[in-house]
Amino acid sequence: MTQQNDVSIKKVSFSTYFKQHKWLYFMLIPGALYFIIFRYAPMFGVIMAFQKYSPFTGLLGSKWVGFLHFKSFFTGTDFWMLLKNTLWLSLLSLIFYFPAPIILSLFLNEMKNQVFKRTIQTFIYVPHFISWVIVASITYTLFNVTDGAVNQALIAMGNKTINFLGLPSYFRPMIIGQQIWKETGYGTIIYLAALSSVDMELYEAARVDGAGRWRIMWNITLPSLKSTIIIMLILRVGSILNTGYEQIFLLRNALNQSVAEVFDTYVYMRGLVNGEYSYSTAAGLFKSLVSMVMVLSANYIAKRAGESGIY
Asked: Model-level pTM?
């Protein structure tokens, strides 16, 4: 009887299945259109990287040059500088920013007063909704040499002023500090959501066995976040060359350019500012291919280690 039912299910036509679930397909339309229009359709422009593109002749009329732009990019003096700066920022972000939402989520989860907990959550979520332009303005107000609050405090204590915004050695700490301040609170949402599904009986059993709050956090709460942390780490590794254009561009200047120039700002400057469309497309395509390989590799390693990946 079961086999007959399975056969009958397999024989259901797509039109019948579509009619039965038409509203699900209808809700799929906005998301599908978004990816088609803004993600897949622009991929046609990738051929620009293999052409000597001219806006007057267009994609179909531009001269084909093959891998010339890739060769110029990889053998040029800028490539290793861009790679070093981008990897440094990504590594520092992975070390200092990535654990921050996890640690904050663990502490928030330990709060018993729900009113106080929700108040704290509201305050730490707010910076996420502040634009990077405002964040850069706040940073300038605090750290500029002439009348910045930090330098004024240094003068009041009898110290010399420090050009935080111009010295290359302070650029990376500034970027990571901004990122932690702005995104840590909002990043706790996904971890707190994962913690909400933890069986409360595990906590009760641990308390009965005499476990303290720190031991409960280490042996129950943190392992419950393991799969979520791995998925977020895979996505983070995949974007290792995506350091964020707007944030870095707003703090970038002629004095700190040696450490501030990354792939994202380089593509903008060479492509839109200098009009080297094909060259910048080649650089952007390289960055995208590396990101794809990193995602696939990290996911493969996670699956081989027995953990759940993103697919």
From this structure: 0.82
